[in-house]
Design brief:
182 residues; alpha+beta; PH-domain like; 3-stranded antiparallel β-sheet; 9 strands; membrane
């Protein structure tokens, strides 16, 4: 049996042709006694850095790894869906993006803003100004809202869609300046 080298950071795959496989043992022969070339016998275990692994074991591990990744993705999607539902609860309209969120309620005269993990609710009277910026080079836009708050006076909410950003700019205009129903 060939001697193994210590792990050097590369993946070593070798067919163990010198070890008789169960098929050869059942026939009462060895690969050396066969007329075929020894390198043609490749039904032994695969060697991954000193660990013997058959193809079926590899496929099982691959399936388990895939299942774990799918479970993480489903969990994250459910968590985001729940956060979106909780954020928009009791508000007339809301926008929920990756890095920021806005929700507005005309009846209660409230504006809810989230950037990162920070969330605050302000009366519409505390909103001083708002402006929009679309960045063509990055294909993203922002709405910057200035509020009457000592701790967090300026909020910047990112949008990935120009139409949605313009829509929210108009919603803020109508709700704060004109006090209209949405």
């Amino acid at each position: 049996m060939p001697r193994l080298k210590p792990w050097s950071g590369t993946l070593v795959i070798k067919w163990m042709a010198s070890t008789p496989s169960p098929r050869w043992a059942a026939l009462g022969r060895s690969p050396a006694a066969s007329n075929s070339h020894p390198s043609a016998v490749n039904d032994g275990p695969i060697l991954f850095s000193g660990v013997h692994m058959t193809v079926s074991t590899f496929l099982i591990l691959l399936a388990l790894g895939t299942a774990v990744l799918v479970a993480f993705a489903v969990n994250r999607a459910d968590r985001l869906r729940n956060q979106r539902e909780v954020f928009g609860r009791e508000f007339d309209r809301f926008y929920f993006g990756r890095q920021g969120a806005l929700a507005i309620s005309i009846e209660r005269s409230r504006l809810k803003i989230r950037v990162g993990r920070t969330v605050k609710i302000y009366p519409l009277m505390d909103v001083r100004s708002w402006e929009k910026h679309w960045h063509n080079s990055r294909r993203e836009g922002t709405i910057t809202v200035s509020v009457r708050d000592v701790d967090h006076p300026v909020w910047t909410i990112k949008f990935g869609n120009e139409r949605e950003m313009n829509q929210w700019y108009e919603i803020l205009n109508q709700a704060i300046n004109e006090g209209e129903k949405l």
